Amino acid sequence: MERVKVIYHMTVSIDGKITGDYLSDERSQEAISYYYAKHREFKSDGFICGRKTMASSFGHLMDEKAVLPEIPIESNEDFVGDPQARFYAIALDSKGKLNWSSNTLRDDDPGYDGAHIIEVVCEDVDRHYLGYLQERRVSYVFAGKAKVDLDLLFIKLKDLFCINLLLLEGGGIIGGSFLQAGLVDELSLVVAPLIQGSQGQDLAVADKELTAHFTAQTPVMNESGVLYLSFVKNIPSMPR
Fold it and tell me: Rounded to whole angstroms, how far apart are CA atoms 98 and 174?
């Protein structure tokens, strides 16, 4: 069975930063608009982000403080909150910190609006939090005991939700983890025309040496001067 395909899709500064003040600069706005347009163009089955990225992007959809139910959920069975959903927002939130007020995103951009939320948790999550998710019909899957097992996660995303194509959209630590695990099939980078400098997070943050090999596709510069770079993963040739 083929695994889920992952495209790491990000806006970056010239020096490879994915966060920083450059994103709010008016000279970056064309690049950001192009980024969202590409997101829609991919027609993926969903997108996946780390907890901090989800909170910074969709914090307005969360309760300030969760009121957890008294009875914990002891089962390690995954929970599908909406069997009819066809597009997903997947949050890597192993300890269960995101207090979603609804099971779908509400966003002005049609590339995100209506996405059904899937929480990725580990077995050491607060079991009362699982009851909170169930009350709101937010889906969740277990992927590891205390640390997210990406291979197990991908199996479950395919089996439970029929997900075949995912956009990985931050942050840099998550990006580094996916690259280290060899799970990024393509890089999709929209380059904003600024240099961020020492501040801001790198595209890939790794806790050990990271080497990943990709082949560059033909770069694109649109009519607004936005540079778009695409790379595909090199597949090692089989020995003869």
Answer: 17
